[in-house]
Amino acid sequence: MSTTTVRRAGPREWGGLAVLSLPTVLLGLDVTVLYLALPSLAEDLQPSGTQELWIMDAYGFLIAGFLLTMGTLGDRIGRRRLLMIGAAAFGVVSVLAAYASSAEMLIVARAALGIAGATLMPSTLALISNMFADQRQRSLAIGVWATSFALGMALGPVVGGVMLNHFWWGSVFLLAIPVAVVLLVAAPVLIPEYRAPQSGRFDLVSVTLSLVAILPVVYAVKRFAKDGLDLPTVAAALIGAVFAVLFVRRQGRLESPLLDVRLFTNRTFSAALSVLLIGLVGVGGSMLLITQQLQFVEGLPPVEAGLWMGPPALLMFLAAIGSPLVARRVPPGLVVAATLALSTVGYVLLALVGSSGGITLMVIGFGLVYLGLGAIAALGTDLVVGAAPAEKAGSASAMSETVQELGLALGVAILGSLATAVYRTRIADEIPAGTPSQVADAASDSLAGAVSSAQQMPAGWLDLAKEAATSGLNTAMAVAAACTVVLAFLSAVVLRHVGVIGGEEPEAGEEAPAEPAESKV
């Protein structure tokens, strides 16, 4: 029956996929370019250790906060229209970020980029689910979409390294301009508009509740990273939890909710979201720490550091495009578990990196980490979107992107803070007596501060700081390895009921209720 109702995509849809991949490439590029630009940025703007973390993950937290809102808004005003509005806004705010004159100004610009970026990702993914009704075509299209993110990450270090070698750090943000222009010109030609039928009223109360639920949790994570578990941290976390409960209860009562909580009753949807969230935590922390290790500890210039970061991102590229093809013959849960097992090996290798001469080991370990990322990004996203009916694609896409962005940002906050705590503990006793307080504070705050103040410290002291930072990296990666090996096992268990993608048995009607809903597109 599904073979007579499902229309296969043609040349226009595949051309539209190429256009939809552009903002994904841009966001992937933005991630790695900013990590690479951090040393130059830190030297110019002189941010504190906490400000560095805010610069890195303000974007991720704000995009996570607004994804649900934007996903539902796209269903109501048109997914293509929202995509084009977001692309234009992203281009404008990128210019503001490029010319930021202080750490505070850059943090605000990064937050605004997060709000603009929140319009892009759910729109692209939801439009793909509408354009590709055939399950196998949709799976491959989402793999290409996820691969585009990997391509952006692979290009980011190389392109960004070249730009940083010739221009100032802000130039990397200007890469968004040509991408935004191409998308605005091509989208009306190749991408069909889609609005969910009978989408209902846009509930501003739900929007407010979702933001008030997420932002206190953001504050709690940030404060915990800086000051540990104190009363304000606990209070903020509790406030976020209370408003999260209120948000969920309101969604259950609304006829047209911001988030259809009934989606979570589908175990494939819930299990895939969990794998995406937990898996991205380790990746977010490792991206930050490895790029810092290459530049601050190994002393590589931006171009060379970018080239070393290229091969791991290319492995993610291969995993993202290859895993949906493998999952046509091997159950997705086993594919995800196997690649996460390889990622565990990668984290173990990173936990063994020394403070000098460890570049090859870092690249191999990071490559294995990215291999797992490519598989869970492609397959996890496909499982989440495939578990929802077409009219809920915006909501499902937003949830998928929310947990991924939140996972990356939490990884930066948690693993970055763990590494910083180890660094500060190790370096505290190494500060020479009589060091001016301003210099001592900078040196003990972060490795970036130690590098900037090295000329005012005794000879050989910087080597001690590098060893302390490497210990922080090793500790954080050991924790990530332990969590990832558990996640690999859980993936095989919680996704064991999912059959091969596009298999004959599910097509015959033996699959869970989500499959017929998808075939009605």
How would you describe the overall organization of this protein?
The protein is mostly helical and 521 residues long. It has helices at 2-5, 11-45, 49-77, 79-98, 103-131, 135-166, 176-190, 204-227, 231-253, 267-297, 302-326, 332-351, 359-386, 393-428, 437-445, 447-452, 461-494, 504-510, 514-519. The two termini are 13 Å apart.
Q: Could you outline the blueprint of secondary structure elements for this entry?
A:
Layout: H1 2-5, H2 11-45, H3 49-77, H4 79-98, H5 103-131, H6 135-166, H7 176-190, H8 204-227, H9 231-253, H10 267-297, H11 302-326, H12 332-351, H13 359-386, H14 393-428, H15 437-445, H16 447-452, H17 461-494, H18 504-510, H19 514-519
Helix pairs in contact: 2-5, 2-6, 2-7, 2-10, 3-4, 3-5, 3-8, 3-14, 4-5, 4-7, 5-6, 5-14, 6-11, 6-13, 8-9, 8-14, 10-13, 10-14, 10-17, 11-13, 12-13, 12-17, 13-14, 14-17
